[in-house]
């Protein structure tokens, strides 16, 4: 077997979509080119942007940082990073340390914010107190609030997250199946800039399949945190993920066609769904919120914090 | 176990969605009420309509005829039926005979049109000649053309087809997955009346799960043709059907939520996709067509007919 691009005999991957065989260098180049293509096509970056990377230390966020850094090296954008320490014993610290080392290696402004400092409680403590809601709901709400706040404090103009093709197609299909049209229009490569209170979010890895990101960090020898969270409980997402992967075996382009179809639907819908942007601010913390209390503060009150 | 409605101890079904147990009479009533509800909610019928039922003799079309007939008995609509005989040996004749008996029993104007009479060729003969396209493509195109023509000839104002909940959700998910947004907006309970050349199509069984239609014809002792076509080759549809059914086991309302979500998306899209309605007529047969030749005539020329 030979690399379909350069003829090198050290092939490391057969691309599922195109059927191409690629050697290590050509594979790395293909991923980086594709991310750059997404950035251009979706207009994810503007010259002069300061992009805050939500850096967990996992493969997706490390890859996001690594590839966006090429735009920084060309002086197109500036980059900073934030890592949220949820406070999960025997799990989170390794990811935080890895994030710190990457930020240092690249010389990037970096902030680590822990739930404990910010709210006086760790996820472990929340889960001991109360788990009728599910760890990921707390985690998601608090992390989002912390990242939004960090973006404002660090003067970021965009927030980049590591969502990959599989994450995105799973979310799209879940919302289709659940008939959850409100969430459906919130997906996409770039969040709406209409809600001026919130920094625009971008997903540079949105067209890269999960397994290729796994291979990319290995090929580039990037240190990443591979363990999975002890609280991970993604039943419906897991089911949807399994069935999309099963369809992909026989229909290798199906994740892409589903993504393209979604993008066309989203564009055609335009303002067809009435979107409600938060009009006021949370009484407790001052964050933008549609209700008297933002979601994070609602949880905190329930937790007696 | 007792019927959740009337207490009768002869329960014949546990409804997947609601968890209700129903006896035979309450089950029959529940199906008929639900179809009537769909008809009203989606405004499928107008007083004075003459509805042409596309009557294959299978469970879906026989149920459609049976339930729409209740509107005929109340003098709200008139009904006629058309059966297409594709010419499939050892298969089609039984369905045609059953269709003839139902039309006779109800005293309904009925027409049987064969591919052989109409185009001088049977599906069996087509499949011996040429099968690079696939039986169902020929069959679908010729059947649709014959039904549209019959509707005009019989003075029908609507065409009713037997599509059930499973058919509809499969088609929706297939189009989502394939990114086929043009076909996506053609689904729904009622076809657009903007293409004036075509009779409006309605799907009264769109909210009834396939297995409940199977049980309905048994409970009502309706004669139907249960065999499946020897050419049936629905690989991708079959895969999608399997995975939706698998999800349904754990999430019994998922077919409904996917249907509702689709309906909201379709409404929000509105005219967001440019739809092309046939502007001209087929040079060969005079049917409305976007191209010089309609699809049926394109196939016929390829087949040398
Ligand atoms: S799996 Fe859930 S609980 Fe664990 S880090 Fe992710 S969101 Fe938080
Ligand atoms: S399965 Fe295909 S070939 Fe057979 S009757 Fe149906 S559409 Fe025609
Ligand atoms: Zn190569
Ligand atoms: Zn708040
Ligand atoms: Zn009963
Ligand atoms: Zn024609």
Automatic annotation (TrEMBL), chains A, B:
Keyword Nucleotidyltransferase: no
Keywords from the named record: 4Fe-4S, ATP-binding, Cytoplasm, Iron, Iron-sulfur, Magnesium, Metal-binding, Nucleotide-binding, RNA-binding, Transferase, tRNA processing, tRNA-binding, Zinc
A single GO molecular function term of this UniProt record: transferase activity
Domain 2-thiouridine synthetase TtuA-like N-terminal LIM: 2-28
Top-level taxonomic group: Archaea
Entry-linked InterPro entries: CTU1-like_ATP-bd, CTU1_C, Ncs6/Tuc1/Ctu1, Rossmann-like_a/b/a_fold, TilS/TtcA_N, tRNA_thiolation_TtcA_Ctu1, TtuA-like_LIM_N, UPF0021_CS
Residue ranges occupied by any Cytoplasmic tRNA 2-thiolation protein 1 C-terminal domain in the UniProt entry: 281-305
Pfam families on file: ATP_bind_3, TtuA_LIM_N, zn-ribbon_14
GO BP: any one term: tRNA wobble position uridine thiolation
Cofactor(s) annotated in UniProt: Mg(2+); [4Fe-4S] cluster
Entry binding sites for Zn(2+) 2: 282, 285, 294, 297
GO cellular component, one term: cytosolic tRNA wobble base thiouridylase complex
Keyword Protease: no
Binding site residues for Zn(2+) 1: 3, 6, 23, 26
Signal peptide: none
Binding site for ATP: 54-56, 60, 84, 162, 167
Domain tRNA(Ile)-lysidine/2-thiocytidine synthase N-terminal: 50-229
Protein name: TIGR00269 family protein
